[in-house]
Structure formats: C-alpha cells, structure tokens
Design goal:
The complex is a heterodimer. Helices cover 26% and strands 36% of the residues of chain A. By secondary structure, chain A is α+β, with helices and mostly antiparallel strands. In chain A, strands 4-1-2-3-5-6-7 form a seven-stranded antiparallel sheet. Classes of the chains: A alpha+beta, B alpha+beta.
Chain lengths: 162, 156
C-alpha cells in the first residue's frame, strides 16, 4: 500500500458506513450510508485547531477527549441491491478522482453533513486511527474510522510535539 | 465550588435493570475542566465554512455504587426523578463503591436540540461488566447553558 499524499488538497474520499450495531462486514443490514467528502482547506485547518485544543486540554488534565465536528459533505443511503458489487465497499474510505454519480432513487434520502470524531493520535505511531466519520440520523448510528484523516492528524500531531 | 451530586444512571440496554448510582463532586477542578471544554467548543465555531463543533467528550474518575438501594429513602426519591440531585453530604450506603472512569459529554445547546424535553447539555456515560449506563447531569447542564449564554470565558 502506498502512502497517500496528504498535501495535495481537496482530496475526494468515499466512505461506506454500516450500522454501528452490525459487527460483521457481511451484516444483515439492508444497506449502508455512503459519504462523499472533499477534504477542503477549511476542514484541514479545523482539524489542526481541534488537535491544538485536544493537546491543550490534555495538558490541563482533561483526558480521553474527543471532539465531534459537523462538516459539510454529501450523505446518502444506498441499499445492498443498489450497490450490486459488494467489493466496492470500504469501511475506512478510499480516494477517488471523481465522486460516483448518485442516482435519482438514491437522491431521495440525501443529507448535507456528517460528523468527524477526533481524538489525539498516539505519539510516534504511524497507524493510529484517531479520526472517525460518524453519521447519526434516522435514530441510527453509523461510524467508521478514516485512514486518510487519521494520517493527516498523525502528521499534524507529530509536528506539534516536535 | 464543592457541590455533591448523586446521579442515578440508567442502562442503555434495556435487557437489565441493574441499579447504579454515581457520587460526583463538582469541585473547582471539574468546573474548570467544563469551562475549558466549553471554551474550546466556542473557539471551534466556523460559521462561514459550515463547520461546527457538536460535542466534546472527556473522562473523569468518580465513585460508582452498583447494587440494590430499594430501602434508601433518598435514592427511592431519586429513582422517580432520573438525573441528579445535589446533597449536603453523601449518604451512607451498604456495600463498597468502586472508583471508575466515566465519560462526560458536553453538547453545544442549539435552538433545535433545546426543543427536545430531555435535552441536557451534559450527559455522563459509564461502562461496566453489566452494560452501559447514561444519565443527564442537570446541575452541570445548567452551568454549561449559562456559560454559552454568557458567550464565555474569553479570559478565565
């Protein structure tokens, strides 16, 4: 696996989120939440601010902190039948050049934001997953860790500590 | 500040009705942490970009009693209230408390979430072998509402 280029800007990432209660990937869900996220400069800067606050809070003895941030993105519900090819599913997100086209059926259940759950990365680790993407609507919770955003957070935090 | 709070906590999984209460002292140390967290929420607001903080979670250590308190008058009253009461002195209870780490969640009060009657700006959650428990902490919730209303805290 190649190391992603974190400095490119406006990266497009697609997430597939299963219901938080579904432990297995081949769950019995009817479908899942799809998120199209563009990692804008504003999101990047807010991630830096959030990590600064978490680090400051840690120094004040406020431990195990997580910040939940609402960010603009495209969210829609896709049934298993609509996706057809389950190999396309990816819980940790993958980068694309262009987002997939959303069909009219899928457009019926569409939202304009989701949340990031941001914790402090483990200092010096290369693979700590400290950022998740989270969606809580329809009385259900959907969540998955983001490898890409965790990687950015790790770089920022390691710089902060040096 | 050194307020003593008794909080009845309720199982998230309805499968058990295990009784638990938490003794939490809202001293200056805890209140300063709450202020600091509220300050962070306010600082992270970015209205122009559509990015907004929703909630910050953190952990504190406190005393948890698990067991049957059917004969304790104060706790029988508390069972009807669900939430927290402020007492002058923590009551004697049968059994030994355990020191446990609980999570406090501070949520930004908004017009839309205030519409829910059960809304409280501060909730606690506690996880044990018997399940996960949650409860609002009205005392701290009112404090957080006041801090947001004051716009806080720029200089503590």
């Amino acid at each position: 696996m190649t190391t992603p280029d974190y400095s490119k800007g406006n990266e497009k990432i697609v997430f597939h989120l299963f219901h938080a209660a579904d432990v297995d990937l081949d769950s019995t869900s009817d479908g899942y939440i799809v998120i199209h996220l563009t990692v804008t400069l504003e999101i990047r800067n807010e991630l830096i601010s959030a990590l600064n606050h978490l680090n400051m809070m840690r120094k004040e003895g406020i431990i195990n902190s997580f910040i939940q941030l609402r960010i603009p993105c495209t969210v829609y519900y896709q049934t298993i039948a609509q996706v057809g090819n389950t190999q396309a599913m990816c819980r940790t997100g993958f980068q694309v050049d262009e987002f997939p086209v959303i069909s009219e059926d899928e457009y019926e259940n569409r939202w304009d934001d989701a949340d990031l759950l941001i914790g402090l990365p483990l200092a010096g680790h290369t693979n700590s997953m400290s950022v998740s993407i989270y969606f809580n609507r329809l009385s259900e919770r959907y969540e998955t860790a983001s490898e890409f955003l965790s990687g950015i957070a790790q770089k920022i935090y390691d710089t902060m500590l040096t | 500040m050194n307020e003593k709070l008794i909080i009845r906590i309720e199982s998230v999984d309805e499968r058990d009705e295990y009784n638990s209460v938490i003794f939490l002292t809202a001293d200056n140390n805890l209140v300063n942490k709450v202020r600091s967290v509220v300050n962070s929420i306010i600082s992270l607001e970015q209205p122009a970009s559509g990015i907004a903080p929703v909630r910050i979670d953190f952990s504190v250590d406190t005393l948890v009693f698990e067991g049957d308190y059917a004969n304790n008058e104060l706790l029988v009253d508390l069972w009807d209230l669900f939430g927290d009461v402020v007492v002058d002195k923590f009551p004697e209870l049968n059994g030994e408390p355990i020191t446990a780490r609980i999570t406090l969640s501070i949520e930004k009060p908004t017009e839309s979430n205030r519409k829910f009657p059960q809304f409280c700006a501060v909730w606690l959650s506690y996880r044990s072998d018997n399940g996960t428990y949650q409860a609002p902490i009205r005392f701290l919730g009112d404090l957080v509402e006041r801090l947001f209303a004051d716009g806080l805290v720029v200089a503590q």
